[in-house]
Amino acid sequence: MQTILRMTGRQHALLRAHLFPRDGNEAVAVALCGRRVGESRHVLTVRKIELVPYEACAVRTPMRVTWPTDQVLPPLLEEASRRGLALLKIHSHPEGLAKFSQTDDESDCALFPSVYAWTESEHPHASVIMLPSGRVFGRVVKESGEFESLPLVSVAGDDLQYFWHSSGSEEDVPEFARRHAQAFGAGTTRALRNLSIAIVGCSGTGSLVIEQLARLGVGRLVIVDPDRVEEKNLNRILNATMEDARLERLKVEVLARAIHHMELGTKIVPLARNLFDAEVVRQVAECEVLFGCMDSVDGRHLLNRLAVFYSLPYFDVGVKLVADGQGGVEQICGTVHYLQPDGSSLLSRGVYTIEQMRAAALKRTNPTAYRDQLREKYIVGVQEERPAVISVNMQLASTAVNEFLARLHNYRDDGNTPFAVNRISLTQAQTYYEPDGKPCRALARHVGRGDVSPLLEFPELSETTVSEPGMAA
Description:
Cytidine Deaminase, domain 2
């Protein structure tokens, strides 16, 4: 089983500042991590960081650090045991040695047996090294003392950083992607080939995002949508036909068929299920990037929450067309949000309110009660249908994919920080940008929690039991 590590941009910056205090000596920190316990992949998500004070270390040289484990670790191990968390040791190599030294081997072999004994868990714990460049690499230290490299350490910040283990990352760029490599570099093209991306919502904007990602050479796409193709969808779902509508084929099957026929090497996982499904949440959580292409308020909130719990970058696409009822258009606009796990959220950015979220949830779970409360004016109604035009959807879908590429391969003159929100108004012929806001008070406490029971602390996801640790953090 592969084990990968995720952290946020803020966590990475905190560690880098501590581990390289400009005195040329090694430094150390310890973190507790949440888990996504999968069948073939185990994900560690940094949850809590403990910086070991420099003055507490008995030895600090350019090649060695000795720190008081008996003082630092007991409260962390107690918490790890109680909440099913993993322990992560992080130290620096200020001289740039890009491998574990013999001293590191001896230190990890001495430390981690006691970690396993204290936590009484068979699930992995890990040790990583940060280099002066900010690159992070590491390994699982097994209870037996064996080492197993982490194939990937990812950082979701203003930039998306993917630190791959050397094996498997030097694949030749395929012919169809060579012009992408000319624009973004072979490294970015290889990164795309190694990524697994989830797209939730496969209709107006989702099908367009999926098409672009497949032709960019993304290695694996997990596409989620429970709905079937209808004739009214044919104005905006790429690759859908009248026959698909007549036969009421599933949207995910239609798109999977198209990607299969491309023969570009992208693996496709179609999930014809609702996002409010524990198995879907688990599969989406194992991807490296999330795209949300949904209209529903409660669905967008759930996906934002999933991104926070599992430390994932989230690109949200929203389109709004307002008709005047007389054959004209009052407004054509759309927004692409980039959301970091420990940054602001769609809720804190005012995309929707708590009241709208509750109304959407009630409409989905109890339509009769929703209609009753709507009639009695206890709640504000959720808009049933909106106009949809493929050219508008195409522009917003392309903006979302280009935003992703900018985060992966920073080509902007002004960097990525100012562009957390991209607002496009076609009626005003204007584009507006906003930076990320303050961390969302409602979601910040959940960063990196990983698997809990019920999943994401949503009662609706409690019917299917989660894998161990399965404990509320």
